[in-house]
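Q: Give me a backbone?
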Amino acid sequence: MSDAAARADQRFGQVRDDVAGRIALAQEFYATASEPVRRYGRAELSFLRWTAARGVLASETAGPPGSPWWRAVNEGLLRDKVEAGILSTAKGTGVASARSVEYWLEFVRAPSPAHWYRAHNASIVSGYLRHAELARTELQVERFMMNVALLRVLFTHAMLVKPRLALGRLAGLGPQLVDPRHRTVKLFLDLGRSFPSEYPLIVPTEEAILDEHPLARMLDYGMIAPRLPALYEFSAHALEEPRLENLLDAGVPAYAWPREDRSIWYIGNTGAHLGAIARASGVRLNWERSPATRAGKRRSRR
C-alpha cells in the first residue's frame, strides 16, 4: 500500500462512526481545493446530507443503527477523494490504489463536469459491486431505492456527455441541466422527491413506487427505463467497468434483485404521460406489461 493510500485509510478511520465527521470530510475535499474544484460539491453534498438525515450513515452501534451498505458505499467515495487529494498536493507518495482514485486525481488536476461525473460514478459503481452481499441484507424497498439511485447517476452522466443517448430529440437540454455546479442537477439526483426520508423504510415496495412524485416517475419510467440497456453499456465503457452491465436483467434493474421479483419494476410503468414523454424524446416504452403492472395501474387511479 502506498503512503497516500495508507494516509487516506487513517484519515477516514477518524470519522468512520461520526456522521458529522463524514460530512465535514466530504466538504473538506472541495473547500481546500482550487477555486474551480470548489464549485462541484453541490450535488454530492446535498445527497450526502439527505442520507445522513435518513439515518443510514449512523454507526452500527447507534440506536437505531445505520445501514452497513450505505455506510460502506459512502466510505469508498470519501476514501477515494481523500487519497486523490493527498496525491494531488504531493503530500503522499505512490500511485493511485484504484482506477476511481485515478479519475478523482484527473478531476482535481483538470476540473470539468465530465471529469467529475466519471470520478464520482466510478467510486459509486465500485462500491455497489464490492458490497452486493451487504445490499442483499436490506429490505426490498431499500434495494429498489438503491437501483433507482444508481440508474439516476448513470443517466445524469449520459445527459452531460452523451445527451442524444439520454434524451434523444431533447438532447440540447441535457448538459446545462445536469452540470454538477448548477442547482438544477438536484432535480435528477434528489431521491427525497421520490421516497420517504426515514430508515428503515416500513412501507411496502409497491406503495413506495405508486406514491412517487409524478415528475420523478416520469423521469424514471418515461425517460430512463426505455434506455437502460444503452445507458448501462455506455457507463460500463466510460467507467471501464464491464461488470456494470450485469446489474441489468433483460433491461430491468437487477442489483441485489432476484429474478422472481422483477415484476415489481413494472408497477410504476403506467399512465399516458409516461408514453408521451418517451415518444417526445424519440423512444417507446418497452417494459412488458405484467399482471403486477395492471394492478399498479388500477391502484394509481384510485
